[in-house]
Each structure stands twice: as C-alpha cells, then as structure tokens.
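User: tokens in, sequence out, please.
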C-alpha cells in the first residue's frame, strides 16, 4: 500500500483495468451545518449554495473518468453531492444507489449542537483540554477514540435527553461494521459488472474510521468537502490506491 501518489488526475480508462475495482471514497459537499459549525451526524442538513458550486466544480474535475456505478448514504447531502457531481462530469444518466450504511457517525444527543463546544466537552470527558491535546495523545486513532467517547458520554446522558439507547451515539465498532458491510457489497457489485471505477459519497468521520483500518501506517487527515480517497477492492480486501483526502479533482475542475 501507499499513501503517496502523484497529484495528476488519471482517467483510469486503460484496457487492462478490467476486473479491478477502484472506489472513489468522497466526502459530501459543504452543508448548512458545516457553515454554522454544528454537529450533523445522522441529521439531514442540505448543501449550501457554495457547497453546490463546489460539488459542480468537483464533478467537472471527474470528466473523462467512467464510473460503472455510484453509491451514497441516505442523507440529502450525500445524494445531492453524488447527483450534481455526476451531472457535471457528463454521467447524468448514471443511477445513484442509496445505502444507509454509508451515512455519518450517529452522535445521538449531541446532534445539531455547537461543534466546538461539543468537541471540547468530549475531549474534557476523556481527560484532555482540547482536540489538539487529544490528537497528540491518540494520533491517527483520534476519530475512533472520540466516537467511543461520544457513545459512553451519551449513555451517561448528562444532557438529560429522552433518546432510546438505540438512537444514542454509535460505537466505532458499529460504524466500522456497517461501513465495511456497505463497501464490500459495493465492491462485489462492481466486480460482477466486470470491474471499474465506483463513486461512493459518504461523510468525514465514517470515512476516516474506515480508512485507518487499511494499514497501521495510515494517518488520515481532516477531510475537506469533496475530498477523495481512492481504495482498491479485490478478493474481499481493501487497499489504498492513491493519496488520502485528495482535492485533486476539485482543483482540476477549475472555476466556471
């Protein structure tokens, strides 16, 4: 595996690609919650005007890349990102398949709350002053540790919400189980089509938690909106196939 690759955009259309599957794991475009710095998780915040423009730019950067299929989570920001990107890329006829397992981590009682205040609360609960201290202590595993802290804290219920246990914050294991389940289904579906590229739109933390399982040396950075990490799928296994959280396709799309 490698987590370094050329920043040049490749169209992956060589004839020898038959039988190979490359998943373009993409974070959704900018949402109203991103702009307001709110925890969104399973909550359904739409793309902003700026977010839609960014998605269309990302889509233009995908021109020349043929996708055999496209998948997304079951939230508006996921579907709209996939649809507008494909339309801008010239593949407006490609149907998008929705898989709820691709959605963001569930933050339970902390959904919709101020992001900075909430993350500080979680860091303090874990014994750290802020996210920087937590990152220094946990390194590449920060997203996994934070999600498990959300789960424990939400069960203790300091906010006094009436959520049922199954609606409270997920564990990292729950997130990983559903993400791997979905991406395996998607990989197998693409193999059945003869291989090729697949657009997959999901969310930042759920993608981070999946990607760190691909190798002990993989340290996933914060993911910008419309960033892409290419992952190869073969024989039931995943491997990194390009740079982490790359903005190369957004950059290639240029200004309209």
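Assistant: Sequence out:
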């Amino acid at each position: 595996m490698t987590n370094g690759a050329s920043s040049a955009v490749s169209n992956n259309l060589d004839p020898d690609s038959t039988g190979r599957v490359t998943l373009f794991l993409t974070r959704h475009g900018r949402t109203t919650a991103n702009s307001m710095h709110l925890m969104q998780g399973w909550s359904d915040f739409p793309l902003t005007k700026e977010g839609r423009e960014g998605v269309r730019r990302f889509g233009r950067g995908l021109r020349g890349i043929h996708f055999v299929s496209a998948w997304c989570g079951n939230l508006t920001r996921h579907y709209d990102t996939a649809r507008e990107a494909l339309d801008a890329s010239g593949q407006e006829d490609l149907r998008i398949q929705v898989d709820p397992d691709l959605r963001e981590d569930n933050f339970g009682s902390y959904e919709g709350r101020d992001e900075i205040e909430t993350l500080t609360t979680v860091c303090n609960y874990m014994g750290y002053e802020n996210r920087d201290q937590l990152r220094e202590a946990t390194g590449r595993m920060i997203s996994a540790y934070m999600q498990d802290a959300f789960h424990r804290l939400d069960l203790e219920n300091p906010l006094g919400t009436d959520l049922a246990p199954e609606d409270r914050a997920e564990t990292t294991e729950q997130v990983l189980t559903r993400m791997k389940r979905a991406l395996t289904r998607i990989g197998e579906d693409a193999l059945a089509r003869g291989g090729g590229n697949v657009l997959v739109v999901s969310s930042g933390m759920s993608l981070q938690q999946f990607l760190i399982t691909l190798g002990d040396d993989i340290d996933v950075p914060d993911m910008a909106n419309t960033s892409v990490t290419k992952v190869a799928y073969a024989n039931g296994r995943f491997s990194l196939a390009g740079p982490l959280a790359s903005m190369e396709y957004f950059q290639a799309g240029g200004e309209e």
